[in-house]
C-alpha cells in the first residue's frame, strides 16, 4: 500500500489583468516579465466567493480522479485569505460539494500551505484512517494586496487548485520534509492593522532558492531517487527565476520544470495544485510518474515532497 495523487483540478476567476494594468505604478510589462516571468494574473471581484472557486477546483479534481464524492471523509483547504476569518473554508467547501459532514479544516502555512496539507493527507491515509483525502489550495491574494505598491501588486493573483490524495497499490512511498523559521517573520507578513502583504523581496528570493533546493535534495535522498527519476518538477510559482535557479542547482532538465507563473502569477497556497491541474491538462503527468514538489512562503515556511501521480 502506498499513497498517490489520483487527480487534480483548478479554477480561476473570470477577470484577467495584464501587466499593462499596472503602468500607473511606474512599472512596465518589460520589468515584470524580465524580473518575474509574470504576464497576467486573475483577481476575484470585490464580492467574489473564494469558496465558490475552491468548489469548482474540487469538483474537477474528483472527476479527474474518478473518485465519488461519498468516498471523501476528510477535506483540507490550504488558505490564508478565506471569505471569513472563521470558520475555516474547508467546511463551506465540503457543504457546497454535498459531502455530508466530513472532517474539514484549514491549514495556514503561507505559500507552503498546500504541501503541509498534502503531508497531513498522506499521514491520514498511511495511518489507515482514510482512503481518499480532498486537498485544496485556494487564495484571493487580491484581498491583501496593496494596490499602490508596485513591488508586490504586480506579483499576486487569485485562484484555486485541488488534488485527491488516495491509497494506491503503487511502489513509491511519498517523502515530504517541511520546515519553518519564525525568526524571519519580518521578511513577509500580513499585519493585523492594514491587512496588506509586506515583503522584503530580495531576501525572500535568496532564502527561497536555498530552502527549496535543500529540502528537495533531502526528499530525493530519502526516497533513493535522483533528479533524473522525476517526471516533472513543480515548485511554488512565485517567480520564474526562482524556480529555474532551484532546478539548475538540482540538475533537473529544463523540459521537466513546469512553469505557469506567466499565466496566473503568485497564487500562494493555490500555486502548486493549480500547476498540477494545468500540467495534467497538458498531458505532462504520465500515470505512475514521480513528481518533485517544493514550496516556500510566509513564516517563513518551506518544504518539498516526492509523490507519484
Ligand atoms: N517595477 C519597476 N521597478 C520595481 C518594481 C516594479 N514592479 N518592483 C520593484 N522595483 C524596483 C525596486 O524599487 C528596486 O529599485 P532600486 O534599485 O532603485 O531600489 C529595483 O526594482 C530592484 O528591486 P529588487 O527587489 O532588487 O529586484 P529583484 O530582481 O529582486 O526582483 C522581486 C524583485 C520580483 C520581488 C524578487 O525579489 C522576488 O521575486 N522575490 C521573491 C518574492 C516572493 O517569492 N515572495 C514570496 C511569496 S509572496 C506570498 O507569500 C504570497
Give me the secondary-structure topology.
Layout: E1 2-11, E2 16-18, H1 29-36, E3 40-42, H2 50-65, E4 74-78, H3 89-96, E5 103-107, H4 113-126, E6 132-140, H5 150-153, E7 158-168, E8 175-180, E9 188-190, E10 197-199, H6 201-223, E11 232-235, H7 240-250, H8 261-264, H9 271-281, E12 290-297, E13 301-308
Parallel strand pairs: 4-5, 4-6, 11-12
Antiparallel strand pairs: 1-7, 2-3, 6-7, 8-13, 9-10, 12-13
Helix pairs in contact: 2-3, 6-7
Bound molecules: acetyl coenzyme *A.
Describe this structure in words.
With 309 residues, the chain is α/β, with parallel strands linked by helices. It folds into 2 domains: 2-168, Peroxisomal Thiolase, Chain A, domain 1, CATH 3.40.47.10; 175-308, Thiolase/Chalcone synthase (Peroxisomal Thiolase, Chain A, domain 1, 3-Layer(aba) Sandwich), CATH 3.40.47. 32% of the residues lie in helices and 25% in strands. It has 9 helices and 13 strands. The chain has helices spanning 29-36, 50-65, 89-96, 113-126, 150-153, 201-223, 240-250, 261-264, 271-281; strands at 2-11, 16-18, 40-42, 74-78, 103-107, 132-140, 158-168, 175-180, 188-190, 197-199, 232-235, 290-297, 301-308. Strands 1-7-6-4-5 form a 5-stranded mixed β-sheet, sandwiched between helices. Strands 8-13-12-11 form a 4-stranded mixed β-sheet, sandwiched between helices. A hairpin with a 3-residue loop joins strand 12 and strand 13. The longest helix has 23 residues, at 201-223. The mean pLDDT is 97. Acetyl coenzyme *A binds next to helix 1, helix 5, strand 10 and helix 6.
